[in-house]
Every structure is written in structure tokens, then in C-alpha cells.
Amino acid sequence: MKIAIAIPTYNRVEYLRKAVQSVLDQVHDHGVELYVVISNIASTDGTGGYLDQLNSDHETVIVYNQPEDNRKYPNPYFLASVIPEDIDWVWLMGDDDYLMQQNSVQVVSEHIKGHQEKDLCFLHACQGRRSRSTGQVRVAEIFDLCNEFGYHEMLGWFSSIVLRRNEFVASMNDLREIHHYTHSDTLEGRSEYSSYAHSAKILKNCVGKDGLFIDLPLVEPQDEEGTAETDRRWKAENTPERTLFVADDLCRLNEMGLFKKKCSRVFFRYLTYHFWDLWFNYLMHELIDGNKTVSELSSKMFLNEWTTNVERIMKVTDLLDDPDDIKQLSYKRLSLKYLANRLIESHFSDPSIASMISDHANLITLSCYDYEMLQCQ
């Protein structure tokens, strides 16, 4: 079995060194051939030189190192373009993560080999701090795994995603068509490229096929908490707003006829709460953003886009299987619209309304799930 650890990178050479070393240090049997495939575009921090040396020193390291591309297309697209055709499986990995066990690849390969009778195209390698280390395995269709554990939980975090080569290449190629919408001037344009666009493309290419989830600690972020650099990246890439557009991704997949059943509330799990909690929280903070002037908040464009985004959230009610979830979402929408109207009528000058919105924002993201992926029985 040939497995490639595939890493898109940009200006994080010190993180990248640890990520790559964790792959080079892997211990596996002779039935596994392990490769590292790295794509670097536009880095200016010495990444290019490091990769040239790495490529020279190791025959099993394959590098796409073309900074002149300067983000013409998304980095994962270039990554997919250099995956050798004889690779069987691709483990997608962030450049600031690492394989936390020396046998992480061996564990993954054994589980893939142990389920060869299935149409297995996906494996979720659990993040260390989110694993209960039970060794439990779930095998099911991709959609059913998302319904049990969460769409983002299964398909969101790069470094947990292991895909069969064909599905990996197809999913990353699909990103090319929508990447240019990232910084569109219009809300309609921006909504084409969500913060988890890769998840939608993977689900599209894997739906109806089997996936596998292993509750073992296999991979981990290098930073225990978010950093200032990560915050800057998220803002530069418009990640908070783009997270709203996950709703559009899911509705589009449903309109394509790919959802053969309704979604559970767990499908919308995001860490310890739900996607819609994150979405409403974002919109609440938009209304009380101290960095915006009253003129900006009162502008027709801001208010129209804000209202459109509220309705964007409500579109997912068509996907839900539980009427009570639909009722709760409708109630949250009504409460937010009421508070928003009162704040607008005060010309954004009533601190008591702003305080109420802030309180609602804090309340809505209280935990309703354990942090671990596998819930206590």
C-alpha cells in the first residue's frame, strides 16, 4: 500500500519542519510505502529553500514549489496535481500539525487493509486531544458518519482526513472552480467559497461510499491554543463570514440530490456546539462591532447583507429531521431580528440593547457536547 502525506503550506517553515519530521520518523511494516507530498505557493519565509533541500535529501519527498503562482488557485489544487498516480491513499495534513504517534500511519494502513471488502474511500484519523483512546471503530456510509459525529467533525479538520487517491484528487480539483470567489466584492460571489469548501467537495465525491472513524489519538495540532498569527490569517481570508456559507454548501449538495435522508442535529455539530450557534454568534457580533461606525452599520448594503445572512441560516431547516430543532432555530431568528430592529431604531446608540445582544451571543455558544469526538455512553 502506498500512502502519501499531503501538506499544503504557506509561510510556516518552522511548523512545517516538525510536521515533515513526524512523517519521516514513522515506523511501519514493509507492506507500506510512505511518501511526503508538499505544495508551496507564495511563501516568503524560507520555505522554498527548505523544500528544495528536503527534496534533494529524500527520494520519497515530492515537492511542488512554485511561489510565482501566488494563490492563483487554492494550494490543495496544486497539491493534488503532483500526487503520483500509483499512490493508493492520501492523508491530508496541515503544515502546523503533526503525527503524534510513530505508528500513526501503520494504524491507518491496518484499518484500511482490514476493511477491503467495503467500498472504503475515507478514514477519519482522530485528533489526539479529542480522542477517548477507546480503539472503537465505526464503519458506515460517509453521510451516516456525519449524521452520527458531525459534518465538520468528520470532514472539516484537514489533518484528520485520509482519502483514497481518486476521491482526493477529484475533491481538490473541484476547489479550483470556486477559489476565485474568496475575495469577491459581492455577498453572492463570496458565498460560493465557504471556509469548509473542501468538506463539501469531499462529501460530494464520497457520498454513497463507506468511511471509517477510529477513536485513537493519531494526529495533533502543534499549538495547544489559537495564536495571533492564526487570527490574522482568518481575518485576511475572511474566515468568520465564510463559515456562514457552509449553509449554502449543504443546501447545494441537497439540491443535487446527494442527501438521501434528513440530517440529525449532530450533523451540524461544531466542536462543542452547533454550526448555527456559531453563525448566529457571528451575526450578533456584527451588529455590535465597535470597529464599525454608525454610518457603516446603518448603511443599506450592510443591513441588506446582514438580513440575507440571517435567512441563509434558516435555509438549513429544510435539511433537519427533528421539528423541535426547526422550532428552536426559528425562535433564535425571531429573537435576533427583534433585538436587531430595536438597535437599528436607536441608531445603534442604545447600550442596553447592545448589552442584551452581547449576552445572547455569549449564551448561544455554551457547550452542548463533550469536547471528545466519541460521546460518553
Write up what this structure looks like.
The protein has two domains: 2-255, Alpha-Beta Complex (Spore Coat Polysaccharide Biosynthesis Protein SpsA, Chain A), CATH 3.90.550.10; 275-364, no CATH class. The longest helix has 23 residues, at 323-345. Helix content is 46%, strand content 16%. It has 17 helices and eleven strands. The model has no long low-confidence stretch (mean pLDDT 94). The strands form two sheets. Strands 1, 2, 3, 4, 5, 6, 7, 8 and 9 form a nine-stranded mixed β-sheet that branches. It has a two-stranded antiparallel ribbon with strand order 10-11. The radius of gyration is 22 Å and the shape is globular. The two termini are 35 Å apart. The protein is α/β, with parallel strands linked by helices and 377 residues long. A hairpin with a 2-residue loop joins strand 10 (269-270) and strand 11.
Summary tags:
377 residues, Spore Coat Polysaccharide Biosynthesis Protein SpsA, Chain A, 2 domains, nine-stranded mixed beta sheet, two-stranded antiparallel sheet, globular
Question: How is the secondary structure organized here?
Answer:
Layout: E1 2-9, H1 13-24, E2 33-40, H2 47-57, E3 61-65, H3 75-81, E4 89-92, E5 97-99, H4 104-113, E6 120-127, E7 137-141, H5 142-149, H6 151-155, E8 161-164, H7 165-176, H8 187-190, H9 197-206, E9 210-221, H10 228-236, H11 239-244, H12 246-255, E10 269-270, E11 273-274, H13 275-287, H14 294-298, H15 300-314, H16 323-345, H17 351-364
Helix pairs in contact: 3-7, 7-9, 13-15, 13-16, 13-17, 16-17
